[in-house]
């Protein structure tokens, strides 16, 4: 239960609400294990939501998580409005600035709803109770005879009614109800929750009015374009800005100090051209003469790097999960199968490149940024300028996609540093080239799998080994063994193997690594579920039948008892329930017509079922490989069980989008580097799925569930690569073990 | 000095004639509905109409727009009720929303040329517009809905007052023309809708 306090007439976030306004604050302890592991916890008050009801009836609900396309800016406030029985037409959603008192604002890990759904219900129910009590007291009737109804409190017996606005001042004087006494709305009477409702920014988005970081504007601001070392870790040797300064509109050429590892969210450093317009500084930057000292990564090569990872994966690693005796079981096997899988670095490539505007004035910074984590902006900017976190105000714009990139605010720090140097607000808007060359890339990975099969082809023994540069190297270059990434599809493999060993090897990246939508699940699911499909074919069995057989009897897996990380928050309510995975497999198979499929030349189905971010997902891909080796994905059927959901339409849209994102990663996504320099620069050499390459239709089936809420933004991605590659095998007999698929000639 | 018309309003420019129209719209007119995504004509985020036809504003230098009519997403329909905008809302197309101005402008040009596009027409016309969030199937559905609804939308001229949204502090909203500056007649590219 959250603690809820009545904060009427207090100053919140530096904002004074008008007298008579009714303000509620609630808190929950931050529960995101990932966030807790990498960020300091303030440990004290964490109010996570504010609600303000004005005397005119306008209800303002604070959205404290960032909107990057999931709809969360609309979903969480809708829960409050639902519990209050408020009229959505009189609800204004206000985006919160970064403030530690809100609890975690780090919008990643697909956990906004999971962490804050209960709190939002409590805030709404609490506000409703106070409004009802206020009206009952005014009328001198029992509160039990009154009810909230469409922005009013009504007394059915007398027909009396008072609007929420009219009750604001009275409600503010009511004692805050004990959270344990709260009565929640009957889900059967929900107007919004679990149904489809439009996002609050919809109209602005179709009219070009939605404001993203790239659109943020401060009066008197200058623009900046920054030349950075093409090799990460390279140092500035010399520069000459004379020609750049001749470009009309260019005012200054200044440097940003170089950073050393650990990279954290620090700006990389470089030479900035500052001027009056985007075009002027872009032109000026082309005229810069800069020499770099490449530094320790100057000879790094992605092909050699990946070969090194594979070499490590062939050797015994650190055991991260062990059941039975794999080595003994291999000796009893009728047949042994082994396979090696590799995946490349990936770029986030959100359509809006990183962008922010910041002003340094009187020792304080105000920034407007497309950021997933405004509190990290405060920390990063404060550290960069040597000022206090409290002196950094971060406003959050809409994000034009993010996928994990925009939780790392190096670009906001650049804007703040330049503003301090130039004495004016400075906007830093990265070019696409900057975005692709200076990303925090999704790790490249190498995986080795080996199975010993019995006569029926079932695994007697299963060995899996993965090697990839860990995310923690961002914080500590010596952290060469992965940590929580293993819980993303590696140690939490749910199959009922009697002899099962998972291992992990060390790696250290030559550039900045970061999390990307569904993180390690992408390569782990690719290896595990491709290999499972290989075994099914080796056994001459149907892949769906084989998958269900390996899943074993319905059970809840106690990973903790095995000493294994599983992404379940260590909570029983999120224990891995194989019956729920079975159910989504059955639905996806049924809806895709799996059992009735007929062999057709070059066309086939492939399946993958995978739980990530606590959501159970199964996807069947129906694709065709033409005579020239071109791939057409006709259809995707995705079934999911995410527990309780808020906005059904946004759940579907996230899974539709994940099918496209997963298709990009599987078919074409790759960042490579030579001599330490990233090879790709724009969408011509870093393609992402276009309309004709994306799945033509994705059908999403949401399992109705009362289970605690789970993730939605990410879990649709991991099944795509294996389902696609399994379908390609069924269609062509070609087994893809290296992503992206386009590296393999299919005909 | 370059003279042009942007959303039915005449404008002039006397800077670098090589500067792409994209930056004139965004930096000088604060019409930020038109987006940057690649700067190389590869993504379609910057799509506007030039004399009624979809062009990539990042690939259109100012010297090429002299005397021409430019329509941006802000000027597509005075009240934001173009058949495509309504269809986009009906299908809840946007996720992050960033690419959607370009998608809508590209689709409007398509419907002008082909009022009833086939799936192949839609693929061909829309393939240059990337949506990293993956809203393609809803874009396709919305284009079909708009194509079916187009006759109904033609009926009334759009002259109603433009409501101005309140800007959050520190952020300037894309400038919105006031009603008096808007001409009742539709530009060529929109006539079909
Ligand atoms: S910004 Fe013009 S096509 Fe990408
Ligand atoms: S909606 Fe986000 S890029 Fe298209």
Q: Going across the major beta sheet of chain B, what is the strand order?
A: 2-1-5-3-4
- From the alpha-carbon coordinates, what is the Rg of chain B to the nearest angstrom? 16 Å
Named once each, the bound ligands are: FE2/S2 (inorganic) cluster
- Number of helices in the DSSP assignment of chain B: 5
CATH class of the largest domain in chain B: Mainly Alpha
CATH homolog superfamily of the largest domain in chain B: [2Fe-2S]-binding domain
Oligomeric state of the chains in view: heterodimer
Number of domains of chain B: 2
Radius of gyration of chain A: 27 Å
Proportion in β-strands of chain A: 15-25%
Please give the domain count of chain A.
Answer: 3
Structural class of chain A: alpha+beta
Q: Which word captures the global form of chain A?
A: globular
The residue-averaged pLDDT of chain B reads 84
- Summarize model confidence as the mean pLDDT of chain A: 92
Task: Explain what the structure shows.
The complex is a heterodimer of chains A (747) and B (193). With 747 residues, chain A is of the alpha+beta class. Chain A has 3 domains: 3-205, Aldehyde oxidase/xanthine dehydrogenase, molybdopterin binding domain (Aldehyde Oxidoreductase, domain 4); 213-296 and 354-429, Aldehyde oxidase/xanthine dehydrogenase, molybdopterin binding domain (Aldehyde Oxidoreductase, domain 4, 2-Layer Sandwich), CATH 3.30.365; 302-346 and 440-743, 2-Layer Sandwich (Aldehyde Oxidoreductase, domain 4). Chain A is 27% helix and 24% strand. In chain A, the strands form 9 sheets. A 7-stranded mixed sheet of chain A has the order 13-14-11-21-18-19-20, sandwiched between helices. Chain A has a 5-stranded mixed sheet with strand order 1-4-5-6-7. In chain A, helix 2 runs parallel beside helix 3, helix 3 (112-139) crosses helix 4 and helix 16 crosses helix 17 (720-732). Chain B is α+β, with helices and mostly antiparallel strands and 193 residues long. Helices cover 30% and strands 11% of the residues of chain B. Chain B has helices at residues 21-28, 83-90, 100-113, 119-126, 136-154, and strands at 2-6, 9-13, 47-50, 53-56, 69-71. In chain B, helix 3 crosses helix 4 (119-126). The longest helix of chain B is centred in the last third of the chain and has 19 residues, at 136-154. Classes of the chains: A alpha+beta (747), B alpha+beta (193). Chains A and B meet through helix 5, helix 7 and helix 16 of A and helix 1, helix 2, helix 3, helix 4 and helix 5 of B.
């Amino acid at each position: 239960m959250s603690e809820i306090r009545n904060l009427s007439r207090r100053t919140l976030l530096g904002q004074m609400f008008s007298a008579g306004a009714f303000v509620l604050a609630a808190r929950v302890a931050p529960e995101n294990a990932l966030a807790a592991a990498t960020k300091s916890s303030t440990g004290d008050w964490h109010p996570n939501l504010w609600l303000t009801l004005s005397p005119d009836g306008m209800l303002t609900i604070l959205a404290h998580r960032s909107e990057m396309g999931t709809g969360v800016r609309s979903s969480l406030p809708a829960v409050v409005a639902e519990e209050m029985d408020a009229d959505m037409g009189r609800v204004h959603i206000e985006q919160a600035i970064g403030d530690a008192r809100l609890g975690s604002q780090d919008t990643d890990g697909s956990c906004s709803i999971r962490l804050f759904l209960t709190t939002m219900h409590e805030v709404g129910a609490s506000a409703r109770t106070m409004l009802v009590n206020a009206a009952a007291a005014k009328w001198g009737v029992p509160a039990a005879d009154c009810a909230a109804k469409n922005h009013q409190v009504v007394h059915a017996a007398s027909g009396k009614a008072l609007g929420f606005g009219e009750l604001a001042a009275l409600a503010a004087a009511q004692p805050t109800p004990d959270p344990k006494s709260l009565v929640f709305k009957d889900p059967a009477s929900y107007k919004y929750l679990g149904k489809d409702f439009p996002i609050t920014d919809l109209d602005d988005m179709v009219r070009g009015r939605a404001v993203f970081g790239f659109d943020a504007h401060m009066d008197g601001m200058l623009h900046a374009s920054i030349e950075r070392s093409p090799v990460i870790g390279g140092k500035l040797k010399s520069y000459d800005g004379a020609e750049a300064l001749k470009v009309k509109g260019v005012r200054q050429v200044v440097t940003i100090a170089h950073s050393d590892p650990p990279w954290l969210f620090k700006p990389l450093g470089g030479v900035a051209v500052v001027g009056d317009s985007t075009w002027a500084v872009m032109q000026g930057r082309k005229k810069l003469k800069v020499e770099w000292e490449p530094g320790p990564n100057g000879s790094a090569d992605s092909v050699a790097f990946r070969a090194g990872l594979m070499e490590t994966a062939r050797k015994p690693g650190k055991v991260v999960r062990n059941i039975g005796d794999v080595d003994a079981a291999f000796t009893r096997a009728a047949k042994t199968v082994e396979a090696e899988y590799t995946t490349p670095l990936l770029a986030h490539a959100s359509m809006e490149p990183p962008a922010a505007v910041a002003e340094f004035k009187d020792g304080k910074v105000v920034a407007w940024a497309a950021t997933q984590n405004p509190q990290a902006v405060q920390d990063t900017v404060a550290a960069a300028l040597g000022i206090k976190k409290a002196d950094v105000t971060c406003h959050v714009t809409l994000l034009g996609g993010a996928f994990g990139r925009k939780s790392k605010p190096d670009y906001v720090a650049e804007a703040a540093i330049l503003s301090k140097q130039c004495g004016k607000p400075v906007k830093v808007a990265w070019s696409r080239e900057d975005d692709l060359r200076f990303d925090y890339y999704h790790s490249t990975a190498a995986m080795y799998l080996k199975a010993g099969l019995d006569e029926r082809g079932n695994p007697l023994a299963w060995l899996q080994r993965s090697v990839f540069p860990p995310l923690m190297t961002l914080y500590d270059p010596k952290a060469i063994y992965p940590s929580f990434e293993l819980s993303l599809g590696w140690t939490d493999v749910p199959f009922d193997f009697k002899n099962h060993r998972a291992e992990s090897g060390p790696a250290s990246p030559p550039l900045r690594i970061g999390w990307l939508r569904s993180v390690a699940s992408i390569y782990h699911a690719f290896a595990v579920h491709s290999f499972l499909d290989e075994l099914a074919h080796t056994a001459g069995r149907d892949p769906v039948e084989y998958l269900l057989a390996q899943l074993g009897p319905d059970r809840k897996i106690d990973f903790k008892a095995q000493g294994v990380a599983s992404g379940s928050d260590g909570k029983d309510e999120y224990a891995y329930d194989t019956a729920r995975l079975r159910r989504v497999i059955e639905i996806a198979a049924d809806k895709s017509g799996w059992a009735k499929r007929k062999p057709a030349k070059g066309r086939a189905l492939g399946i993958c079922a995978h739980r990530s971010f606590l959501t159970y997902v199964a996807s069947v891909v129906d694709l065709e490989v033409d005579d020239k080796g071109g791939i057409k994905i006709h259809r995707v059927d995705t079934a999911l069980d995410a527990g309780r959901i808020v906005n059904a339409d946004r759940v579907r849209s996230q899974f539709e989008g994940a099918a496209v994102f997963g298709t990009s990663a599987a078919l074409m996504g790759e960042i490579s580097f030579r001599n330490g320099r990233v090879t790709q620069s724009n969408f011509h050499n870093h393609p992402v799925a276009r309309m004709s390459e994306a799945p033509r239709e994705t059908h999403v089936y949401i399992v109705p569930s009362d289970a605690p809420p789970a993730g939605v933004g990410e879990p649709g991605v991991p099944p795509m690569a294996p389902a696609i590659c399994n379908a390609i095998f069924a269609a062509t007999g070609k087994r893809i073990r290296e992503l992206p698929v386009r590296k393999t000639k299919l005909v | 000095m370059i003279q042009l018309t942007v959303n039915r309003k005449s404008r002039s420019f006397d800077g670098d004639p090589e500067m792409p129209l994209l930056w004139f719209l965004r930096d000088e007119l604060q019409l930020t509905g038109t987006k940057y995504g690649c700067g190389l004509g590869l993504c379609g985020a910057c799509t506007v109409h030039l004399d009624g036809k979809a062009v990539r504003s990042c690939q259109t230098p100012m010297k090429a727009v002299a005397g021409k009519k430019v329509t941006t997403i802000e000027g597509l329909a005075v009240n934001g009720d173009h058949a495509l905008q309504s269809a986009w809302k009906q299908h809840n197309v946007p996720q992050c929303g960033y690419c959607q101005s370009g998608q809508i402008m590209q689709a409007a040009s398509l419907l002008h040329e082909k009022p009833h596009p086939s799936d192949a027409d839609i693929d061909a016309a829309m393939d240059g517009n990337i949506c990293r969030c993956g809203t393609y199937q809803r874009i396709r559905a919305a284009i079909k809905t708009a194509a079916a609804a187009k006759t109904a939308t033609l009926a009334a001229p759009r002259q109603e007052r433009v409501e101005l949204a309140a800007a959050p502090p520190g952020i300037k909203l894309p400038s919105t023309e006031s009603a008096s500056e808007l001409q009742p007649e539709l530009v060529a590219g929109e006539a079909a809708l």
